[in-house]
């Protein structure tokens, strides 16, 4: 009888020792730490893309489509692939900012300059923005020859547009100027800090000659 009891106890002890380590009392600790890390990252990155090598320069558009702001690109695996990290828009960010567009269009056709300026102006107005002024400054020599769509330009037709718009509308203007084959160069400048008092300091467009 005693021998049978000893065999039963030995079998029970062997069964307990054979249990996986995940069931030990200390095993949940790494899981809790991992969960805390995920919660901390989720508080900063409210949305992420999948891992890829091809997201360079595309994360801002990815986050904007989802209604968020781009925060950063983060490494997500040992292959050095990265993903986009999006954050919630700042509640204190101004709804509109004051921008100035300096466009350089291929010379020889004033109608093209008017059409490009009209297209950009309509983009701003449709998004609730305000056009403060548009000025045509004619044809000037470029600082150096510029090749655009396999054409070399030494002169360009300059115009300036100053406008108040949301970041979304401003992104539309930038995209339009970038893909239009008639545009040689375009510079976009943000004026002021977005406050009303700061924006009021800027009057009409002035061209220093």
UniProtKB/TrEMBL annotation:
GO terms for molecular function: small ribosomal subunit rRNA binding; structural constituent of ribosome. The keyword Mitochondrion applies. GO terms for cellular component: mitochondrial small ribosomal subunit. Pfam families: Ribosomal_S6. It comes from the Eukaryota. Residues 1-18 form the signal peptide. Keywords: Mitochondrion, Ribonucleoprotein, Ribosomal protein, Signal. One of its GO terms (biological process) is translation. It is found in: Mitochondrion. NCBIfam families: S6. Belongs to the bacterial ribosomal protein bS6 family. Component of the mitochondrial ribosome (mitoribosome), a dedicated translation machinery responsible for the synthesis of mitochondrial genome-encoded proteins, including at least some of the essential transmembrane subunits of the mitochondrial respiratory chain. The mitoribosomes are attached to the mitochondrial inner membrane and translation products are cotranslationally integrated into the membrane. This is Small ribosomal subunit protein bS6m. It comes from Cephalotrichum gorgonifer.
